[in-house]
Amino acid sequence: MLPLVGALGAAPARKPASLRRVAVADSGHVAAHASAELPPALRAAVDDSLRGASGKLEMRFLDANLHTRGTGLFARIFGSAALRQPGVYIVDDSSLSRPFAFVAMRSFSDKAHDGSIGSYRIGFWPGERGHSRTAAYANPDGFIEVTRGNVSLPVSEHFQLGDFLTHGQSSVWPKYLVLHERLVDKLELVIAELEREGIPVRHMTVMSGFRTPAYNADGGTTSGRSSVSRHMYGDASDVFVDNDGDGRMDDLNGDGRVDARDAQVIVDAADRVERAHPELVGGEGVYPATAAHGPFAHVDARGTRARWGLIR
C-alpha cells in the first residue's frame, strides 16, 4: 500500500473526513479506494442514479473537461483534483448493493502525433482529418487506461473492462479503451429481456467491442468494415450468447441448430429494449456464421436507428 500523495506525486484535494483513500501500485497504475461508509445521500446517489436503466452498471467513465453524469459525486467522494489524476477509483462501501468504481480517463490530447500513447498504437479518427460528419462522429472525449491489474474489473454485472478491448497488441500494456456506459447498459437490458423470455444468459461474449482506428483499418478481417464504424466510438459491440463455453453462439430459439436465426433472437430482444428505452436507440444487425466464426448480433447505441441483415 502506498499513500496516494506518494503514488501520484501530488497532494490530493481535500476529502470528506469520513473517507480514507489509499492507492495500490499496479504496474505504474493507481487505483484509489474510498473504504469507509459513505453518507446515506451519497450512497443512494450511487445506487439510484449511476447504475443505469438496467440497474447493473458498476463503473462510470469521467473526463476532467466534461461534467458528465457522476462527475459531481466523484468530486464529493475523492476531491475534484482527482479528475485530473487518471486511474480507477473504487467506492468500497459494504452498504452499497454492489461495489462501484469511477475511472478518471486519460485526455484525448495525450495521444502523440504518431497516433500512439506510449507503446500502444491507436491511430487517427476521421474527425482528426477533418472528416467528422456529425457530432456523433466527433473524436472521443478520452481514453480508459487498462492495465494487467484492472483488466478484469467489472463494468457491469455481466461484463469486464477487458471484454471490450481491441484485439491485437497482446503484449503491450497499458492498453487504451473507448467505451460508453450506454452500450453496456443496453447489453445488460438485452440480457434481462432474453431471460424474461425464458432464455438463460450465463455468459454473453463480446466478439468485438472497441476497435482502435488503426485496427479498424488493417487489423483482422477487414472485409465489410465501415471506415467510420461505430466500434471506433465505443458504443458498438458484436455479441453472442455462449453459456456452454464452446466459443460459439448457443441455440437460442430451440430449433436444434445454431445459425443466424439465433442472432436474430438477440436483435429482437434489443428491439424491445429500444422501445422501452428510446434513449438507447442504435444499430442492430444479424451476421451469419463463416469459416472463421459462428453467427453473431451487432448491437450499438449510436443514438439513431439502423438495421441490417435481419431475418423475417
What descriptive keywords fit this protein?
312 residues, alpha+beta, 2 domains, five-stranded mixed β-sheet, 6 helices, 15 strands, 20% helix, disordered N terminus
Topology at a glance:
Layout: H1 4-8, E1 21-26, E2 29-34, H2 40-49, E3 59-62, H3 71-78, E4 87-91, E5 100-104, E6 106-107, E7 116-117, E8 120-121, E9 142-146, E10 175-177, H4 181-196, E11 204-208, H5 213-218, E12 236-241, H6 260-276, E13 283-287, E14 296-300, E15 306-308
Parallel strand pairs: 2-4, 3-5, 13-15
Antiparallel strand pairs: 1-2, 4-5, 6-9, 7-8, 9-10, 11-12, 12-14, 13-14
Helix pairs in contact: 4-6
Structural summary, described in words:
The chain is built from six helices and 15 strands. The protein is α+β, with helices and mostly antiparallel strands and 312 residues long. It has two domains: 1-104, no CATH class; 109-312, no CATH class. Strands 1-2-4-5-3 form a five-stranded mixed β-sheet. The radius of gyration is 20 Å and the shape is globular. Residues 1-30 have low confidence and may be disordered.
